[in-house]
Amino acid sequence: MSDFDDASTGAKMDFAKDMSYGDYLGLDAILTAQHPLSDAHDEMLFIVQHQTSELWMRLAIHELQAARAVMMEGKLKPAFKMLTRVARIFEQLNSAWDVLRTMTPSEYTAFRPSLGNSSGFQSHQYRLVEYLLGNRIGALMKLHAHKPDAYEALSAELALPSLYQVAIDVTCSRMGVASLAGQPSTEDWKADPAIQELWQKVYEDPGTYWELYELAEKLVDLEDYFRRWRFNHVTTVERIIGFKRGTGGTSGVAYLRKMLEVELFPELWHVRGAL
Question: What is the model's pTM?
Fold first, then answer.
């Protein structure tokens, strides 16, 4: 008997009537979803890179929505695990840029015309992540008007408080002050000195407000990884296409650099200079 036979003793080998690994994961659909439109070798890399990024973002949305739900119930500890997981998801997304950067400008140029006007700028999942976190630009909804399901999901999100608004609500409640979070909005979050002062009280007395202190640091950790992802996006695009206009019509690197200035949780960053 071979070593393989010894090791596989007892393993199920016939899946004609039972669910297999591939069946459970839907691998037939996933592994046949890559359809290059050119003969360029590197187009497969480009497709797989973006498809896997969308899968990671699907999980990030799942975790962020769940974290917000438990926080709205006043439960912070379960949310900490979910927020940590989202930070690690963005760590994975960061690593993916390293793979894409193995593609040279010449290799990208070989299939770029096949993309037409398609662009990551049109990702409704990325937009949903931003809306969840509080960077809400309602005008960008028009990008998704041709996809009813995506448009409905984004519209539903804009009717809810962002994750950060919920975090502020919880903080106000536990510190016995009136809510400072405001109502759901279709505009991006603007820094509020009163909210910064609230976080400052937390940071100046972490022993008293330990869970709120930990919440603040989980949010900062999440934005830290999110910022790194944006930065790596910029450098990858500049490395591959320079300062050309993006396929979706944006100014490319110039637009992405502008996005680096966006602060998701500004009071949590500004408070550091006040301590």
Answer: 0.92
**pLDDT tens figures, 41-76:** 999 999 999 999 999 999 999 999 999 999 999 999
Instruction: Write b or e for each residue in 164-184: b if 16 or more Cβ atoms lie within 10 A of its Cβ, otherwise e.
Output: bbbbbbbbbeeeeeeebbeee
39: left (phi over 0), alpha (psi -120 to 50) or beta: alpha
Q: What is the reported pLDDT for 240?
A: 84
Does a structural domain hold residue 10?
Answer: no
Q: Which CATH number goes with the domain that contains 177?
A: 1.20.58.480
- Among the listed residues 212, 211, 186, the one whose alpha carbon sits nearest the alpha carbon of residue 131: 186
- Locate 52 and state its tokens: 């896997």
Asked whether residue 134 is assigned to any structural domain, the reply reads yes
* Domain count within the chain: 1
Domain that holds residue 78: 39-116+123-273
Please give the share of the chain, as a percent, with pLDDT higher than 70: 96
DSSP-derived letter for residue 183 is -
Alpha carbon 181 to its chain centroid, in Å, reads: 22
Q: In whole angstroms, what is the distance from residue 102 CA to residue 122 CA?
A: 24
Distance (Å, whole) CA 200 – CA 174: 15
* Mean pLDDT confidence for 99-113: 94
20 within domain boundaries = no
Contact 111, 43 (CB under 8 A): yes
* pLDDT computed for residue 4 by the predictor: 55
Instruction: Say if 200 falls within a structural domain.
Output: yes
Q: Give the three-class secondary structure for 204.
A: helix
Task: Report yes or no: 215 and 171 within 8 Å, Cβ to Cβ.
Answer: yes
Query: What's residue 14's pLDDT?
Result: 83
Closest CA to 218 of 229, 231, 205, 202: 202
